[in-house]
Amino acid sequence: MTSLRAATVADAEALGGLHVDVWDDAYTGLMPERLLEERRAALPERVERWREILAARAQAPDAPVVWLAEDASGLVGFASALPARDDDPALPGLELTALYVRARCWGTGLGHRLLEAAVGDRAAYLWVLAGNERATGFYERHGFVLDGAVDDSDDHGRHLRMVRR
């Protein structure tokens, strides 16, 4: 059985490892391998970054939650949403900033459960890596549509914006 819960600072190490693993699952073949290798090599920094994020959120009672999915083997997914970071008044005020599950959990409904926890039925937007047809299809099934916006500023690749009104 997979359960969902809010992340705490004590989860930083496991969450950092999960974050690196799910990037490998999701992006191998979609972005240069060296970028994935660099992320894996920087795992201690990723763990520390998660520790900082979770500690800051713990200090703010109404801060958005990082949702974790956990089964008997440990963490298997996570999701988070934040107030919109893009300066575009036409966009919804909520951005889905992360939604990842381990490849072995794809197609189980876990992604849907995490999306519901992080966003529910609210209007939101997100950025998806161009060519990630699996993710794009998932978000389309949940009411998101490509709006034509493109971001080429990231060395991870081209990102496409999807919006759900």
Automatic annotation (TrEMBL):
<protein>
    <submittedName>
        <fullName>GNAT superfamily N-acetyltransferase</fullName>
    </submittedName>
</protein>
<dbReference type="InterPro" id="IPR000182">
    <property type="entry name" value="GNAT_dom"/>
</dbReference>
<keyword id="KW-0012">Acyltransferase</keyword>
<dbReference type="GO" id="GO:0016747">
    <property type="term" value="F:acyltransferase activity, transferring groups other than amino-acyl groups"/>
</dbReference>
<dbReference type="InterPro" id="IPR050832">
    <property type="entry name" value="Bact_Acetyltransf"/>
</dbReference>
<keyword id="KW-0808">Transferase</keyword>
<dbReference type="Pfam" id="PF00583">
    <property type="entry name" value="Acetyltransf_1"/>
</dbReference>
<dbReference type="InterPro" id="IPR016181">
    <property type="entry name" value="Acyl_CoA_acyltransferase"/>
</dbReference>
<feature type="domain" description="N-acetyltransferase">
    <location>
        <begin position="2"/>
        <end position="165"/>
    </location>
</feature>
